[in-house]
């Protein structure tokens, strides 16, 4: 195809991260011709700068922490981690930042890849500026899906650009362990990266504007994670804002709102995300550049019957697994509309992303892990549900004691006392990330409390916490 040619497809997907890949997979499976446009690496943020590298970095950290709690093994793992081996493990899981394998997968499903920056230049029209500077025009008979994700949002501090701060990308891809690291923020990226770099040998100082860590979870989740980070040697300061950042003779200096000077080698700002929609040509179709895109439950953009926004860009749930879930919904909806099928509008149907509202799971891979699905107690009350919180100390569960000496953890289920279903579940403790799917099924499926009694947990596993929670609810 020459630079001046226009090529038509049934579907054009902007962004080849996990979300865009899944949209393409579903539309190709339905027999629709599909083009995928990507300006960076096929596989996106998750594969190279988020989920995969962060978990590869965290796995040795968590495995060592777990081993240190097991009699007969603890004395064998008291030394430092081999940082070079951990970083090499991370590099392996990012394929050394090469996307050959993911490109091969796109080829295998029959999607056409266009490398370059894609912009909307009108309804159903995308112009791709390639690495050579040439433009190609793609038109979509049925749908354009915006799957461009989000980027780190940096605060407007004077001189911040000059100090070259880390974002999540630098934090997951650094080739060296900084001697001292400041982490600004208290959310998922902040806590996970503080866990990694403290364990690899950095002296970590966390500067958290809010009252505690993991503010979107139950308060006890952040409290237990902060306690563990402090025990590991991190300096966790809450209620603290950064007013300025400079480099003085090579040393980074952050000044807080209380006038404290904190010195470090690097500083990570993990203070939120912004949509990658600022240079997508949204203005050509009457939308605001740089904005989050409002969608219905089939992920179609409000007011545009051909445009879909899937994953982070719609701000419904900034999580890879939820984005992939949305992609499956969007792909099914695009295919149904393209072939004239009736869109199934009922909740939990093939074309409705209802779980984005009620049953969004998340795991924070710190030590201890924190996992949650659905609503917290405060969120349930704010939503007008009549609820009751049921708490269990995980150390009372036989499987937890076998998992680790001195096991510390807590579980909470938020019960709707009128419908007798679960509105939310939160688990904090070593290994609890593997329990959250059972909670997700209970919340998403609106499984009645009476029926949960008959889902018998195996003994002795940590999952026996379900029995303890149900007993506590019954006996309260």
UniProtKB/TrEMBL annotation:
NAD(+) binds at residues 185-192, 272. It comes from Streptomyces chartreusis NRRL 3882. Keywords: FAD, Flavoprotein, NAD, Nucleotide-binding, Oxidoreductase. The keyword NAD applies. The lineage of its organism: Bacteria, Bacillati, Actinomycetota, Actinomycetes, Kitasatosporales. Its EC number is 1.8.1.4. This is Dihydrolipoyl dehydrogenase. GO terms for biological process: 2-oxoglutarate metabolic process. GO terms for molecular function: dihydrolipoyl dehydrogenase (NADH) activity; flavin adenine dinucleotide binding. Its cofactor is FAD. It comes from the Bacteria. Residues 360-466 form the Pyridine nucleotide-disulphide oxidoreductase dimerisation domain. The keyword Ion transport does not apply. Disulfide bonds join 46-51. It is an enzyme of class 1 (oxidoreductase).
